[in-house]
Amino acid sequence: MSIDMAQFHQVFFEESFEGLDIMESGLLNMDPGTVDDEEINSIFRAAHSIKGGSGTFGFNDISGFTHIMETLLDEMRDGRRPVTPEAVDVLLRSVDVLRDMLAATSDDGEVDEERVQEQKAELEQILNGKPGEVATDVGAADVAAQPVGGVEVRPIGWHIVFRPLSHMLRTGNDPLRIIRELAELGDLKSEGDISALPALSSYEPEDSYLSWDLHLHGDVEKQAIDDIFDWVEDDCELIIMPLLPEGEPEAVMVAATAAPTASEAETPVVQAAPPPVEQRSKKDRRSSKDRRTKDRRQSVGSSGGGSIRVEISKIDALINMVGELVITQSMLSMLGEDFEMDRLERLNDGLAQLERHTRELQESVMQVRMLPISFTFSRFPRLVHDLSSKLGKKIELKMTGENTEVDKTVIEKIGDPLVHLVRNSLDHGIEMPEVRLAAGKPETGTINLSASHKGGNIVIEIRDDGQGLNRDKIEEKAIEKEIIDEDHNLSDQQIYELIFAAGFSTADVVSDVSGRGVGMDVVRRNINELGGSIEIESDPGKGSAIIIRLPLTLAILDGQTVTVADETYIVPLVSIIESIQVKADQINRVAGKGETFKLRDEFLPILRLHELFGIENPNASSLEEGLLVVVEGDGRHCGLFVDDLLGQQQVVIKSLEANYQRVDGISGATILGDGSVALILDIPGLLRLAAETGADSAAKQTA
Amino acid sequence: MNEPQAKIEAALENQGEEYLTFRLGEEDYGVDILRVQEIRGWEAATRIPNSPEYVKGVVNMRGSIVPIFDMRQRLGMEVHPYSKNTVVIVLRVKNERGERNMGVVVDEVSDVLSTQKDRICNTPEFGGGIATDYISGLADADDKMIMLLDVDKLLNQGEQTDSENEDAA
Amino acid sequence: MASILAVDDSASMRQMVSFTLKGAGFDVVEAVDGVDALSKAKGQSFNLVITDVNMPNMDGISLIKELRGLPAFKFTPLLMLTTESGNDKKQQGKMAGATGWIVKPFNPDQLLATVKKVLG
After folding, report:
1. DSSP code for B27
2. Within an 8 Å CB–CB cutoff, is residue C32 touching chain A?
3. Alpha-carbon dihedral B151, B155, B160, B163, rounded to 10 degrees
4. Burial of A605 from C-beta contacts in 10 A (0-12 / 13-18 / 19+)
5. What pLDDT digit, counting tens, does each position of B104-141 carry?
6. What is the spatial distance between Cα B146 and Cα B21, in angstroms, rounded to a whole number?
7. pLDDT tens digits, A493-531
8. In a domain, B6, yes or no
9. The domain A556-702 is classified under which CATH number: 2.40.50.180, 3.20.20.60, 2.40.50.100, 3.40.50.20?
């Protein structure tokens, strides 16, 4: 039977990468000196599975490497070796190397052999105090199993005395099976011995009482016999003696059988099973010089576009839903075959049912794309561990809501922005331990990374208890960069938000950690591209928080339909705070500052959509005639002036870029019930557009 | 409209040097028939804000969003009100990012022109108003001169000028 | 046809074992750990159980001990999949009532040969 093992590779790689993440987070959680059984067991198990799988699927380099890690972990698990920070660090680095090896193997790439060997040496150093012993001897036990050279005389067969102990049947081993197997090796003569059978009164039906005297003739390796009895060596009395051709000196035979414990030829060789054959083929190393510097995990994450692991329950839900849909469909078509007006009610019922099933099906399909955000969060313990020691800071990372499910695209795209934000917190937010102590704060800073569902949104927060944002420095910088005027009258909050402005480089605060050439404006753009928004909170001396809001799914959104002249647009419901009809006394026109209106205690700028989009002849030209949709984008509020509101509906987002290009202020398009196209407004983009074109100078004021 | 459609299909069978020809005012143009995805009547498109004049908007073509360009405006010709003969030719446009579908509005579709490669003149010489960049050659058909358009140049170029136009808007 | 319970926390190994055995015509039920396996074993009888050793929730050795204690599994062959080349795990397995073991890494042919041997 030939089975293509390659079909299991993808699953093996996926679970191995998951295993590595488990190992990594487990290692990061380990407190030196003490051993948490559950923790180390799960790390060990992950290593063990990778080793087993890689061996089975023929990735011998990987299994060889993992074997050393496993050995080290095993000793730690048994308490034979203390858990030192050094050992943990070496293991963490080994996890990285192993991840690279797996990624290279999975992508048919080159393994950085030099790095593997270095890391191996490091592991062996820890394991043995000196390098080079474990790895090379992985398969040492095999050697004994091979016939040794210099064979001159082979036995012509074997004499086996096999006496199962009374409990053997209760191990699931059947003596007759063993005898059958022996018979396959050669010509077998067996003699049963029933002398041990007790009187019927004391007979235990589950015990075995028989024994056998077996003569196996043929050219049979002793190993083959050993293998057959391998499982039962402790469940029976076993004597295996070679049958020699007549007249041969028996001492020679010993070499031939290569039984490790065979001492004297005359003495029956009592079964002392050598370890079973372990086929660890020797490393077929590909030599590779070029050092792989890419972050493999990153590329694996994003190249994983090909497949997605979906819980069976989600698939089941889909199948159920499709079933319902089919039933409804056949019901409707029966109804349509000879329709009469008196069946109108049933038709309406059927259509309502169809609508419900369609919606449910849609939701279930969307569920398939949802993955827990832990896929993204899992990299942060390591990041914080490495960076805090680099910066000499004491930082604890707390994560909550890792199981919050988000769209697969979000998982793929949110990683880099989050890394940037967490690095910022580490670098600029949390103070040095002595500074913290002096400020009366705990020495160890805390970064909270959380994800949750809030009202149709995913909210991701990065909150630290550091020093907060430096308002004056930001202000100074913004003036220097001519982002704001010196005579601005911005609130503190508005100052903070300047860090998201394009061109606001934090050049003099760039450090090795956070200054990687990515500005907060890029972070905000990435979030906006996902249809989300980003906000900042800062409390000087107490900490700061970044709050990211993302839509639940990227394929569908809840929209409010609005009209301007003949045009119909969709405003994402998440951006809408309320819709109001303004009265003249709420409106405030400031020369050169555009229009604002007073909503409760706040003056909000007004954006006239028809002006922004150059639409002629809007139905409502004066503000009192139309409606103001109060929207929020990037933390700013404004009133979007439109002619009218129509209904609210879920729309399927279609790309404008697929056949056309990106359009400022528009996030996509959708197809309405009548087949026509409506554009979906991108509120943060609109606010930026307004600020850029100067169509509304009030917007500029807050930009 | 069915007639040209049928001719397209017939022409596709032959796989020659074939062009779908159409009229803009007094002039005849042709596009590579293999690039033609669909011919449809003009129907109102959804306007795209702050886009160049020649971008008429986007329409729904079997679930995907396809932009529609006015060919007269694209070629700098005088604007002509749309009539019942006005049609949209949906073309497959290639660039380094892949393929896109775009529609062009023309006065009317004329015919399918089969011609030999050697009958196509490669060096068009025009004066004045016509943007020769988009013309890949000239073909002779029944005493008519047909300007063959390079679809990729014509419609990808549009993208670059968009940003300029946006600033003006 | 004989039914086999295949227990492994690793999806790739489980798939490989299950695919191989199904290909040979066996009925295969999969379980992801000892707890899962035990609950499946209580609801159905099997002619053979093949289990990994290192698993979360309940490891293979505990599973074997539990299964052997069930009347329906008193004589059922229980095989462990183990990479442990030392006798340690095997001894523990035997003590718990394992019939034998299949040493990882193994290939589908080896697996089938062993299974056919045990099931006669």
Report:
1. E
2. no
3. 170
4. buried
5. 999 988 888 887 766 677 655 555 555 567 788 888 77
6. 8
7. 888 888 887 767 554 444 444 444 457 888 888 887 787
8. no
9. 2.40.50.180
> 3-state DSSP call for residue A646?
strand
Contact A672, A568 (CB under 8 A): yes
- Nearest by CB to B169, from A568, A614, A659: name it: A614
Helices (H) and strands (E) counted in chain B, each on its own, are 3, 10
CATH for C36 = 3.40.50.2300
Give chain C's radius of gyration (CA, Å). 13
Nearest 5°: phi and psi at B112?
-110, 125
Q: What's the CATH number of domain A157-264, 3.30.530, 3.30.70, 3.30.420, 1.10.3470? A: 3.30.70
Nearest to A88 by CA among A399, A386, A459, A432: A386
CB contact under 8 Å between B45 and A677, yes or no, is yes
Q: Is residue B88 part of a domain?
A: yes
Total CB pairs under 8 A between chain A and B: 68
Give the pLDDT band (50/70/90) at residue B150: confident
Task: Determine whether domain A373-551 maps to CATH 3.30.565.10.
Answer: yes
Which residues fall within 8 angstroms of residue A23, CB to CB, at 6 or more apart? A43, A46, A47, A91, A95
State ipTM: 0.84
Q: How many structural domains are present in chain C? A: 1
Report which of B160, B155, B118 is spatially closest to residue B138, judged by C-alpha positions. Answer: B118
Its domain, for residue C18, covers 3-119
Please tell me which residue in A48, A67, A357, A610 is annotated as part of the active site: A48
Q: Do domains A157-264 and A373-551 have the same CATH topology?
A: no
How confident is residue A33, by pLDDT bands cut at 50, 70 and 90? low
CA–CA dist A429, A26 (Å, integer)? 26
pTM (predicted TM-score):
0.46
Chains C vs B: touching, with 3+ CB pairs under 8 Å?
no
A337 catalytic per annotation: no
Residue A679 with chain B: CB contacts under 8 Å: 46, 48-49, 58
Cβ pair B50:A613 closer than 8 A:
yes
- For residue B67, list chain A residues with Cβ-Cβ distance below 8 A: 659-660
Q: What is the mean pLDDT of residues A219-248?
A: 80
Residue B55 lies in a domain: yes
Percentage of chain A with pLDDT > 70?
81
Distance CA A239, CA A235 (A): 13
Q: For chain A, give the mean pLDDT.
A: 78
CATH superfamily of A5-145: HPT domain (1.20.120.160)
**Structural domain of B46:** 16-156
Q: Domain extents for chain A? A: 5-145, 157-264, 312-371, 373-551, 556-702
Q: Is residue B162 part of a domain?
A: no
Mark yes or no for CB contact C10/A235 under 8 Å.
no
Residue A174 tokens, joined: 């059947």
**Residue listed under structure tokens 């001897």:** A137
**How many Å lie between the alpha carbon of A184 and the closest alpha carbon of chain C?**
11
Helices marked H in A209-343: 222-229, 250-257, 296-303, 312-337
Contact A669 B58 (CB under 8 A): yes
CB contact under 8 A, C105 and A52: yes
Q: What's the whole-number mean pLDDT along residues A480-488?
A: 80
Interface of C with A in 85-114 (CB under 8 A): 85-87, 91, 94, 97-101, 103-109, 112
Does residue A556 have a pLDDT over 50? Answer: yes
CB C93 within 8 A of CB C53: yes
Residues A615, A616, A622, A625, CA torsion sign: negative
CATH code of the domain covering residue B131: 2.40.50.180
**Is A48 known to be catalytic?**
yes
Task: Provide mean pLDDT across the span A6-12.
Answer: 85
Q: Are A229 and A238 in contact (CB under 8 A)?
A: yes
Counted residue by residue, chain C has a size of: 120
